[in-house]
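Below is how a single chain appears once it has passed through the pipeline. First comes the sequence as given, then the structure the pipeline wrote out for it. We keep one example in the README because the format questions we get most often are answered faster by looking than by reading.
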Amino acid sequence: MQPADPATLQTLAGRAMGTSWSVRLVNPGFAPLAPLREAIEEALALVVRQMSPWEPDSDISRFNRAAPGHWQALPAEFFTVLQAALHWAQASGGACDPTVGPLVDLWGFGPRPDPLAPHAAAVPSAGALAAARARVGFRRLAVDAAGQRIGQPGRVHLDPCGIAKGYAVDLVSAALAAHGIADHLVEVGGELRARGTRPGGQPWRVAVAGPGEGGQTVLALREQAVATSGDHWHAFEHGGRRYSHTIDPRSGEPVRHALAAVTVLHAECMHADALATVLTVLGPCEGFEFAQAHGIAARFCERAESGAVLRATPAFEAATAR
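Resulting structure:
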């Protein structure tokens, strides 16, 4: 029988960004929880106001509607996320691309009235696919780093969903630290970041997708963030084929390899989130080589006739052996 958590280990939870969030925090002075909840919710609301394609008045939605030639100044948080997305787009040869929005929409995974509703099958015609691909390409995006602004070349549709959730985790963690909560575990839609320790100095333990009992394995996090990407969620079947929500911007189609999930450890959840997408798109072979070349702590879970096959990079083995 597991011992009960000490009273100083407290939990807050709610919903935002079309998903759930939860925070475990060590509160030895029993500071009031209401201001902490308010700080968490404001951090999440900031990400929605700036980066949600579901919100018509968000900064990203206004840019996506803008006419060719329009330059838009971005808030510091949005610009930080965009710079990270563009960095990994360049490094991966376009395996992730913040302009992938038209393809996400075309395949039925874009904004819709009810984000929790099941995805409708949406296999596009060759003509529609070609038209959407013509609108995608991170190199089309004009960026003025000094002015923190971006230029709309025409019909570019930004979609930060492969990185913004991770950034939201980082932002919530920073808000808690600013309120004096040094030891905490933040989770938003399955992406996590741990700071400090549990009461007694133990690491934060989290379950992630894997082949263990119940399809999960447990990781001990110490000043780390973790993100997992895979095809367990947001998919549809059509004509006997399963279509994953992970779109390869280079081909314009959902990935088709046998990779079931990728888990990435990083100091920042924003980068863990982006890298999980990059490695999922690249697949079990190219993705593993990319992770090794960049010193990324990643574990790949690949389907095989004999069952799930796990393969971890040296950086992942070192990070989880501490």
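The two ends are 26 Å apart (CA to CA).

See the next section for the split statistics.
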